[in-house]
Amino acid sequence: MLHIQSFAFNPFSENTYVVFNDNKSAFIVDPGNFTAEENQTLQKFIEDKELKVQNILLTHAHIDHVLGLQTVYDHFEVPVLMHQLEQEILDRNPMDANRFGFFFKPFIGEIQYLEEDEILKLDDDQLKILHVPGHSPGHIAFHNEAQKFILSGDVLFEGSIGRTDLYKGNSDQLITSITSKIFPLHEETRVFNGHGNPTTVGFEKNHNPYF
Length: 211
What we know:
Layout lengths: L1 E8 L4 E8 L3 E5 L6 H13 L3 E6 L11 H8 L3 E4 L3 H5 L1 H8 L10 E4 L4 E4 L2 E7 L8 E5 L4 E5 L2 E2 L2 E2 L9 H12 L7 E4 L5 E2 H7 L4
Parallel strand pairs: 3-4, 4-5, 5-6, 10-13
Antiparallel strand pairs: 1-2, 2-3, 7-8, 8-9, 9-10, 11-12, 13-14
């Protein structure tokens, strides 16, 4: 069985997740930890739970979702998994940081690319990769059918959708991603998104003003 712990980190209030199972195997998803205190909070949770981090997963590589990527990678020394189309987005982050008025070093570490429908395993637990572009070109989501949840990044929010005015955003793609990949899921599927409160597929299908 998988468990999900969320942390709201950095000035963008980005949701960082730790997904772990009863065997203490874990993924870190979208490490947005930015300050020394946030780094300590994340590491302390993992240490207190005695978790064994297997990989770092990125729904996408916008700067608010990777502010802690180098720190987490250096500490746990496990590969980063993301879609290949996000490499350009990741590489642009030092330039994007300058626009926000701070310095950000290029990421240095092992990256492995994920594909649509690929299955990630934590022992007997599984996450299926859904390619859901629109907010960014290589945006992916991680779906667990057995427990009815999806880690959706910045695609679908409570009563809203991801912005598409950023580099290589595409509003038509985003709407298509949601209607063709997320809305067909079971209505009770919990949506753990990149900012704000979790929601459900059924609630958004019936109440989201964008649909």
